[in-house]
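Note to self: keep these together.
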Amino acid sequence: MSQTHLLQQISRKGANIAMLSAKIAGDSNALSVVLDGLSAKPAAIKYGCARVLLEHSKTHPEDIYPHVQIFIDMLADENKIVQAEGTLVLSHLAVVDTDGRIDDIIERYLAPIPGPTLMAAANAIKGAAKIVTARPHLADWVATEILKVEKAVYKTEECRNIALGQAVLTFDCIFDLVTDKKALLTFMRRQLDNPRSATRKKAEKALKKRQSA
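Structure:
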């Protein structure tokens, strides 16, 4: 497949992202084209390539890992969508992180949690679940950082309630890996009074699994 044809397919509205990810599997030239597409000016190409790489990181993280620095750099991108894609891709790369690159940047990865941007914070909290699952030695430190979401300042109170809900989901996922389980349970119980219905329900579901705790 030519470079032009590949980018045309990626930028097409309603593109089959999973199929395109499968097409670049094991094809270093095609992967290079998609990686280069992250710098393209046309938004359809830039965001299309980002979506394909995110999908590919889920199924073939070993293909993406040699290019991990690209996604680390995306954490500081002014474009919030690009930043979000980088955050989520990195979470999928943790499972193949033989060089400890994720460990090296975990503080930077979780830096958005205190605010002010909900998207950045929520994606960092979400991604942390996959990172800790792959790298359990980070569990206690990551949990402590995520607990800071209760004092975070975002654009609105509702934004914080959304972030709190995401924190519940992550804690539910990494619960068995964290030493201070009491702190997580106490956090979850506080969310039973959260004014956001979806967050309350997440807390109720997570706590129901641990009724004896």
